[in-house]
Amino acid sequence: SQQGEEDPQALSIQEGENATMNCSYKTSINNLQWYRQNSGRGLVHLILIRSNEREKHSGRLRVTLDTSKKSSSLLITASRAADTASYFCATDANDYQLIWGAGTKLIIKP
Amino acid sequence: DTAVSQTPKYLVTQMGNDKSIKCEQNLGHDTMYWYKQDSKKFLKIMFSYNNKELIINETVPNRFSPKSPDKAHLNLHINSLELGDSAVYFCASSRKPAGEKLFFGSGTQLSVL
Known about the structure:
A: mainly beta, 6-stranded mixed beta sheet, 0% helix, B: mainly beta, 7-stranded mixed beta sheet, 4-stranded antiparallel beta sheet, 11 strands, 56% strand
């Protein structure tokens, strides 16, 4: 299946700073999801944003969606060491399948 | 209670062997999946079952055969293992096939020697 694109591939910031990662996709969507994967673990769902929504918040997470540009961004505010992980976006290609981005590896330096 | 559990966590085996990975979910979900994650972290859907019925079967060699004895279980059997099968395999489930968040197992790291 096709891959979405995430940008940057890797991001290293100081603890307390904000982290922003972007996801672009190719086809029209019903919704877009963000997941986190800690090293050696399974993926954990963070947030789902529907195509008729522009912004969604969950704790320190803020997700935006721009369907005209076919892109989404995930902002993590006041980063912590525990936020070190890979972050993936996924869009629904059809009724049964998600298309996944390649992931952004986020490192939070103490 | 683990929502999606898969076993084993690690599997090291020789080329040509046959192995199985088991997956169980206790969330009451209708849909279950097998994903393969390669060394570059790309996630690729392999199979999806909804109510024990196969709904996605991506281009996967015939050596891979999923089996869903009931809604809560989706096992993956692999025949004649090859070096290229080395990867992390994830089981996942969702309430229904579309527009829902996925719950993932912790993965099975398969190493074929």
